[in-house]
Amino acid sequence: MTPQKSPGWVLSFTLLGLIWGSSFLFIKEGLQILSPFGIAFWRTALGAVVMALVIVIRRHKLPKTLKQWALIWVGGLLMSGVPAALFGYAQQHVSSALASILNASTPIFTVIAIMIAFRDEKPKRYVVVGLLIGLIGVGIVLAVWSGFGVNDPLAIGALVLAVTCYGFGTPFTRKYISTMSIGSESAVFVQVSTSALTMLPLYLLTGPVFVGELSPLPVISMLILGFIGTGFAYVAYYDIIHKVGSAIASSVTYITPLVGVFLGAVLLNETITWNQPVGGLVILLGAAIAQGRLNGLVSKQ
């Protein structure tokens, strides 16, 4: 179906970039009262509430077979549950700015996943060039020449594993879930709801329900992260795809690190070292090339 051109998508696109870019700030605040598994559970559970309302209002149908539910469950763990817990763990030890920058490397790890496990076609030259440039950017962000700088190696590993999950989750979703005869909103509802159910026992069995005293800011942060950052954001994302196509919608990842770094520096007083924004720009350049957005500079093969 040809995307419907509509001027309203610009506002939705901007809001989506601000919402997803600020999610790293909300995770940092939420960690004052929740464990990483708590972050993952509440984020997906609250998002599932929003998606359930959307399904009821729009009268979408849910998957009918066990195989469909199982595939969407796996996709949900890769795209929602596991990365949410990993980002929660990592942000106990690293800045929200660093987390947002490394999150922008998702397109790079998607290319790696396609080359490893979803090799439907031979990678084109510009894809390989973009991949290499993006990996160099990741190295710059992490300051690999000084052993990750002051960052905890386990936290860095958690961030890399999180974007790796996104990397494998994107082509997995495209191949096994997008081809199902169900609406996108229904698939997202199953993804986040099954992720919440999977995270729940891990959340309850690995520590207290709340790790700190409840206070307004962390509670509000988690409500925003769940209802808006997970629920409303998915609705907005698919609305943008419907209006202008997936290519433009996916470019929202170029906004999120800018928002994340800005909020981390201004609201959390995080220190931004020179290599983080420089490496972030290199990552975005590599991602743009790998996605074919700069084909005038890099020849196709």
Q: Which characteristics define this entry?
A:
EamA_dom, 301 residues, globular, 72% helix, EmrE-like, mainly alpha
Describe the overall structure.
- It is a multi-pass membrane protein.
- Its main location: membrane.
- There is one protein chain.
- α2 (36-58) crosses α3 and α5 (106-117) packs across α12 (275-290).
- The protein has one domain (9-290).
- The chain has 12 helices and no strands.
- The chain is an all-alpha fold.
- 72% of the residues lie in helices and 0% in strands.
Low-confidence stretches: none
Helix content: over 70%
Which descriptor suits the 3D outline? globular
Mean pLDDT: 87
- Distance between the amino and carboxyl termini: 28 Å
Content of β-strand: under 5%
Largest beta-sheet details: none
Which sequence of SSEs, written as H and E, runs from N to C? HHHHHHHHHHHH
Count of distinct structural domains: 1
Specify the number of helices.
12
Q: What is the CA-based Rg, rounded? A: 19 Å
Give the class from helix and strand content and strand pairing: mainly alpha
* Extended strand count: 0
